[in-house]
Amino acid sequence: MNFKDFRMGWRLLQQQPVYSAIMIVSLTIGFTFCFLVLAFTRYEFGFDTNVPEVQNVYVVKARPNWGFGFWSENVPLSMKDSLEKSDAPLLVTAVLPYSAAMRVNDGGNDVVTKVELTLVDPAFSKVFGIKPMEGDLQAALSRPDALALSVATAQKLFGDRHVVGKNLQIRGASYRIAAVLPDQPATSSIQFSALAGLNSAAWPEAERQRARDNWNYYSYDDKNFLNNKVYFRLLPNTLLPSTQSNATSGNKTDIKSDGLLSELASAINTDISRSALAGHLNTKDTQELGNKPLLKIAFGALADSHLDSEARSNSGSKGDPIATLAMNAVAFLILLLTAGNYVNLATIRTIARQREMAIRKVLGVTAGRLLMQMMAESILVSLIAAIAGAFLAWLLLPVWSELTELDMVSILTRQDWMAFVAIVIVMGILVGICAALYPGWIALKMRPANALGGRGNSETAGGLWLRRVLTVMQFAIAMFVTGVVVTIGTQIQYLKHIDYGYQLDSLLIINLPAELSQTEVRSFQDALARRPEINGVANTTPWPAKVEFKTTKTETISLSTLRVGPEYFHTIGLGAAVGRVFDPNIDSGDNSNGLVMNELAATRLGYANGNAALGQIVSMEGKAMQIVGISNNVSSGFMHGSPRPIVYQIATSEKSSLAPLLPQLTVNGRNDLTAAKTAITEVWHQHFPDMYLNLSHLRQNLEVNAGGPQAIFDSCVIVAAIMIPLAIFSIYILSAYAVQRRAKEIVMRKLFGADKLDIAKLLFKEFTILLSIAAIVGLPLSYVAGRGFVEQFADQAPMGLWPIVLALLGAVVVTLLATTRHTLIAARMSPAVALRAA
């Protein structure tokens, strides 16, 4: 193979530009997707490489030996103390995210911004190798009135990264910025906007003491939950026994194993056994626990933490190695399909050039030389496609990052790009060599006598059937994905425009800081209600709690119960189907024993319908309550599952299992949310100038669950955008070969009186059969998959079979467009020219 072979290949590509363009575009699609998946794989498998000697850093994992027994990296803060008390040569730090409202008055601008303040130990910098760009990080982590900001946070708060020595306020107290830190890469498990020590005054003392003294993290009381992680670094020259190799690979370690890590796990379990945690277990959990330790402790290597999908984490999503490998398999399959299309078209061109090759063989060109020339042409096509695919992937990388919600653009280094260029060249050459083998075999086994005698204008029956199967498979996948895309897209649009049954588009939500007193909240609520832009304000818990009720048959059941203020129903515009809803003129908080519920809740309690339930007395957590009304039904929107029974209770000041974690205010902003937001902001700053206003639109909150369906829809669109062009190219190639293969038959039919319509019917018959087989395979699967998606929701779009019909019509249109050119060629074919060429 030499330069002349590539030059000859380039000339052949120029002779048939349409065929050449199809080959290159088809391969380009496969290479583009492969390179995008390659960037995704680099992201998933490249976590925490920025940490020096990352193999010595571990994260603590735990799993309860009862009940909800899943592994988690969120562990009690007390585990840090257990590790620090050991004599092991290690550095330990906790990492505890804590939201804070930071007030900055710089240059006359008085702004309050919500920032996640990560609380850590002074050893944090050595555990993770964090070095400040400016200032003293140890001072920031040691002093209770100091903190450190990342570059991005400094720019956000002050508009400048040089902020060491400046001050900001948290809850009215002043804090000095002691250091500025570099922004962490997207592939770091440790993300932070601001750092402070665990002794920071920004963390209320009562919360700090409860967290430090608390081993009740695994109890059923939500107030004990902290999103805390514990990490440690083994100091240099620390030798781990070979029995601990599982721990260093991120697998779980049996606490009975020998070695340093087992000793650390034993130390933690000893402290757990002395805690009050066992006293919080119910009888069932205690029986399930038996003689086992309360918790099973393991230490996962930080380098493997991101892909440890078994260990749940509430601070950032975990990667899934199986899903990543599956995506690579899909990319490889798509590249095979695109390469298959190229092989098909190259085979057709080889058969069309059989006389040329026969003459070259007669003139003495050896089989090896002929194969090298064909391989040079194939490599040239593949390299052009690989380079075009790489360029297209580079252009699409920001879009790909947005779709996957992963910042793949910023993580790629110069070394990554150099490796990427090498991969492009190698993949282009390998695909070119592999794609040339079958057409080369066809050329080598072709006998010059048959070719020159006009008896070699076809390939084997096996090759023809392989091409047909490939076409059917591509069309089946394309129809399957098209039907699913239409179904999912229709359902998403239906849910986005559904009538929820109340004034959803006028409602705003204010998440109130937990430290506010009821008096402060009431004062703010009253002031807000007096504004003309506001049409009602009501307090509510952010989500329903499960509460025990007695049915008419005295059976105990749990129903979702939402605590609301008496103004709630007026504020959201939800009326009663039977009876009445809460009225602030009738229902007063602490003295109210009334309940409002939907009809589903009434039937769950044993009543025939809402009318039968009205006025009845029910037992709720042992307290007698009266059903005063049945509310109108509300839509579930993007929430999965069937319609849910819901009970509404007037919020009281007494402590109960319904005590809110994050109190909320629901505000009706009439039909002008912009004016309402302005009014809310003004009143908020008058009452709470040092606190961040967490204001959102209720519709946006409810449609957060739309992220999953939207991601599925986007993924299907990507697959459809790949498979539909491949199906077009495949049927185009098949039509070209059909005309070439049946040229003699076509002209003979013309000589015996067949017109253009007869010729078109002859060719379309084969395509119709293939399309029908693809539809039989792909459309039922598309319907089942689409219905499976739709049936996740209580509110389902009325669509029937039309997505499947639309997918079939689309396939028919695509087939007509792809085959029209060669059908016209066949219809216009001159018998004299065709017979002379034969």
Report the C-alpha radius of gyration, rounded.
Answer: 35 Å
Give the strand tally: 21
Query: How would you name the oligomeric state of the polypeptide chains in this document?
Result: single chain
Instruction: Assess the beta-strand content as a share of residues.
Output: 15-25%
Class per helix and strand makeup: alpha+beta
Shape: globular
Cα end-to-end separation: 32 Å
Helix run count = 29
Instruction: Describe the sheet with the most strands.
Output: 7 strands, mixed
**How helix-rich are the residues, as a percent range?**
40-55%
What is the overall pLDDT average?
A: 82
Q: Poorly predicted ranges (pLDDT <50, ≥5 residues)? A: 220-224, 239-258, 654-662
Write the layout of secondary structure elements.
Layout lengths: L2 H13 L1 H28 L12 E8 L13 H8 L4 E17 L2 E12 L3 H5 L5 E2 L1 H6 L3 E5 H8 L8 E4 L2 E9 L12 E4 L7 H8 L16 E6 L10 H4 L11 H14 L9 H7 L5 E7 H4 L15 H32 L1 H9 L4 H38 L3 H4 L2 H32 L2 H5 L8 H36 L10 E5 L6 H12 L7 E4 L4 E6 L5 E9 L3 H5 L3 E4 L14 E4 L1 H6 L5 H4 L3 E4 L2 E9 L14 E5 L13 E5 L4 H15 L6 E4 H5 L4 H35 L1 H9 L4 H35 L11 H26 L3 H7 L1
Parallel strand pairs: 3-8, 5-7, 14-19, 16-18
Antiparallel strand pairs: 1-9, 1-10, 2-3, 2-6, 2-9, 4-7, 5-8, 6-7, 11-20, 11-21, 12-20, 13-14, 15-18, 16-19, 17-18
How would you characterize this protein structure?
- Helix content is 50%, strand content 16%.
- It is built from 29 helices and 21 strands.
- It starts with a helix and ends with a helix.
